[in-house]
Amino acid sequence: MTDLDPEEFRRLGYAVVDWIAGYRAGVGDLPVRPAVEPGWVRSQLPDTLPEAPRELGALLGELDRVVVPATTHWQHPGFFGYFPANASLHSVLGDLLSGGLGVQGMLWSTSPAATEVEQVLLDGLADALGLGPAFTWAGGGGGTIADSASSAALVALLAALHRTSGGAWRESGVDGTERVYVTAETHSSLAKAVRVAGLGARALRVVPPSPGSLAMSADALAEMLAADVAAGLRPVLVCATVGTTGTGAVDPVAAITAVTAPHRVWVHVDAAWAGVAALCPEHRDLLDGVEHVDSFCTDAHKWLMTAFDASLLWVRDAAALPDALSITPEYLRNSATDSGAVVDYRDWQVPLGRRFRALKLWTVIHGFGLEGLRAHLRGHVALAAELASWIEAEPGFVLAVPRSLSLVCFRLDTGDPDADDRATRALLERVNASGTALLTHTVVDGRHVVRVAIGSVATEREHVVALWDRLRGAAPGS
Amino acid sequence: MTDLDPEEFRRLGYAVVDWIAGYRAGVGDLPVRPAVEPGWVRSQLPDTLPEAPRELGALLGELDRVVVPATTHWQHPGFFGYFPANASLHSVLGDLLSGGLGVQGMLWSTSPAATEVEQVLLDGLADALGLGPAFTWAGGGGGTIADSASSAALVALLAALHRTSGGAWRESGVDGTERVYVTAETHSSLAKAVRVAGLGARALRVVPPSPGSLAMSADALAEMLAADVAAGLRPVLVCATVGTTGTGAVDPVAAITAVTAPHRVWVHVDAAWAGVAALCPEHRDLLDGVEHVDSFCTDAHKWLMTAFDASLLWVRDAAALPDALSITPEYLRNSATDSGAVVDYRDWQVPLGRRFRALKLWTVIHGFGLEGLRAHLRGHVALAAELASWIEAEPGFVLAVPRSLSLVCFRLDTGDPDADDRATRALLERVNASGTALLTHTVVDGRHVVRVAIGSVATEREHVVALWDRLRGAAPGS
């Protein structure tokens, strides 16, 4: 029993391409959120696996019958939930090439091109984002593609634990004195990384925001660092977020690095969603101060047209992650590694194996060009600015926080907080139930808030106009 | 600047499918290992990223010019290195469908089908592998697709830390008394997981092998557990390996669970490579005792026709991973999760985001059927048995350890250990330099050993015959 021969693959590959073309052409007509109960999909599929092979067409039929009706359509033009998960068709082609090559990029020697294409692209993006030469290979740093910002934050924390322990961490582990600094708005992946790393929730320091904002107060951070050091504790990592998940708040990176400078603490910038906007010079100020941080992460798989997973992580010190993470059993030894002339990306991540993820990033950059990517970002920022202006002008609606790039957070406001919260929840549920758009929520200062995260690949002005018409129409009193 | 329209995607998608068909049809004629120096790929690519979009054809040209000549061809029929990385064309089609749908499966509610298809397939495979009902959802356990066996081992360890701490771990972290039990042959990912989890290398207990073998001695484990408990230490996890990376050794799972039973220690089975062989009843004995362990991992992306990444992890207690890993910020709250009726796979892994990996597993099972997968496994086991018989019959060659499934480990043997080690190294390098096959090595009892890991998708009898002809021809004295 062997694999498809190349001619069969050609025939079936065309059929899958056709299926995807059809799905993407029609996705805007589907309800964004499926109307299925838990267990429905399982109830539709056989309990046992087939003994004999079956034709691909039968499986495509199952996708139409069971999977599509039970899918939340992240590529729908009316998807405004969470953050966008851009899976552009350009990137899908790159990922397909990666599957076709089928290489393991764990070591340079297990596929030199997989490693070096990634290095070249990350160098180019460091330049295009304005990160500065310190994060390029020539500057002593370097970039990698992680699966997610969660994993990027974890490895940054591990490198920080190693560095701040004077090297004891690899042998002795953590000692309970480590402290990690976040805000209440920092992504939960930081708390998860702290937990995974064995520090426990007690190691998390929640730095208060500057008055009137949701962004970290550098002054408060300075006080907490000093107090912790005085108490014999060890500041390990400060996470500055550029574009929080809830509301798009931006921690002041430059001010933070100014107060962390006297300490050995590692500064990580989590710009998972917003960081890619720095491709546009008019948004470059988001990254003010980034030249002083230790690591910087932004996700190509959110708003940069690249299918999950492609989280871009740069570190200032190319030795930091291998120093923390490398373990070399005999069966992985090879002359290229021993020479010291190559990067083995397995030492930049927790898993050993890795896909050739750089290919999908390459097809995106190649297919859109930097100017195309900037146009994509700018288009959504402009749409968000329009939506925010409509909200501001509409009686009974209020922006919960200032618009952040393409994220608009609003709530209903008639002066009765409890009634407004109920109405805001109901409004969100009515729009989601309509199937034309999907929105998610957060809570700001105890108030229920609707998030409109503009940025799906297919989202155009007409979809934002339709969303606003529906929001106005579904609001109480309309 | 928008994405490809569906018709353009159709045209370009066909072109990529054609490129892959051509690559796979011709890969056997390429040298398995590229003849490139570090830096060559980088030297061939521009330093800066393109401003304007370019045609896909130009990028396919770059793949031919730069990537293919600098690639280690894991899908080559002469690839016998490390372990196979089966990226069957069936699985490539499934991964393409996943990219086309472009969903985020972090929560049930963010794509119900992505979660439930995974549940159905993992239940079916638990049955097909003979894991027993305890690992199915109906039995109180459940399975998930992790990116790698490394990540699976890490989350198993985190669940074990949580459980054995009586729940203190999430708040207080590790306390330095934790101990993890492996052998010298256990995969390095366990040592890495121990490091990541903050335990430090001192927490690793290396259990000696049974006399005359490379497999864990259950008696020695029992003594170490008792001594550690008596010393006030806390046994957290025992890793039993079914099919070690170096030589395919099999730790005695049933005997291990017998001696761990009096303790609360978590038993994890790492059967990354060999576990899938249990699809064949004649290899089911590899898993004797698995019904008593806490977690079991085997990789579909090694020898089960599925493109990386698809590591299958089952746990006996479906609550164990969420209990250890769940953190729910406001923006991830949803009614389905609150109902308790669904599985949110983000709580089964470190990253938040996840791809719809089950699709590629589905296309594999659908396209080959279980009988096709068994034929694939059996064919390679039979080829390895033939090769081992030829080695045993050949003067100057000796098996370093008994053949394990489709893994054959041998060395040259003329009675002069130093000369034999040099000759074995030279033999491996001559074969690899020929470009017709790729082999990797390990060390057993201080002796240099060549590993022949049969199992690539395209490997047929003729390729093993050719390898053996070359090995005999390249050996000293031939």
UniProtKB/TrEMBL annotation, chains A, B:
One of its GO terms (molecular function) is transaminase activity. The keyword Magnesium does not apply. Transmembrane segments: none annotated. One of its GO terms (biological process) is carboxylic acid metabolic process. InterPro entries: Aromatic_deC, PyrdxlP-dep_de-COase, PyrdxlP-dep_Trfase, PyrdxlP-dep_Trfase_major, PyrdxlP-dep_Trfase_small, Pyridoxal-P_BS. This is Aspartate aminotransferase family protein. It comes from Pseudonocardia petroleophila. Coiled coil: none annotated.
